[in-house]
Amino acid sequence: MSYWLFKSEPDTWSWDQQVAKGDGGEEWNGVRNYQARNNMRAMKIGDRGFFYHSNIGKAVVGVVEVCALSHPDSTTDDPRWDCVDIKAVEPLNRPVTLDEIKADPRLAEMVLVKNSRLSVQPVTEAEWKLIRELGGL
User: What per-residue string of b and e applies to 23-36 under the rule 16 or more CB within 10 Å gives b?
Assistant: First the structure.
């Protein structure tokens, strides 16, 4: 299993909206960055990810699961853009903020710290375990 982080502005698509979609999940569409798209193309069914509120809150707030493999993004006719579908699995017991992540030397190499603009990014197994722990899971 691989681990990922999905960034969303909560005023555009929030954790609560993701949860409301239920087990059917929702397309993670609208991504227009080749590196982020390639990350989605590498995903497998059952991979897990963090749901991260960007801009407002700046915190990991939940855990999601990839429930549909990479497919054409329904928000464009441009064949270059793909997306996956994700479903909510569980909320963190407490959000883990970007400031906390940046302050923890064990997370200094995390993509979120080094390339905070990338909207879909890989997370190492060690980072995954640590953030889950910090979030009370």
Answer: eebbbbbebeeeeb
Output the CA–CA distances (angstroms, integers) from residue 101 to 17, 107, 127, 128, 132, in the order listed.
25, 6, 10, 12, 12
How many Cα atoms sit within 13 Å of 76 on the Cβ side? 14
Q: What is the CATH number of the domain that holds 63?
A: 3.10.590.10
The gap from C-alpha 36 to its chain's centroid, in whole angstroms, comes to 11
pLDDT at 115: 84
Residue pair 67/93 in contact by the 8 Å Cβ criterion: no
Our CA dihedral for 52, 56, 59, 62, rounded to 10 degrees, sits at -50
- Number of domains present in the structure of the chain: 1
The percent of residues in the chain predicted with pLDDT above 70, rounded, is 100
Cβ–Cβ under 8 Å, residues 64 and 87: yes
The pTM score is 0.95
Domain span holding position 92: 3-134
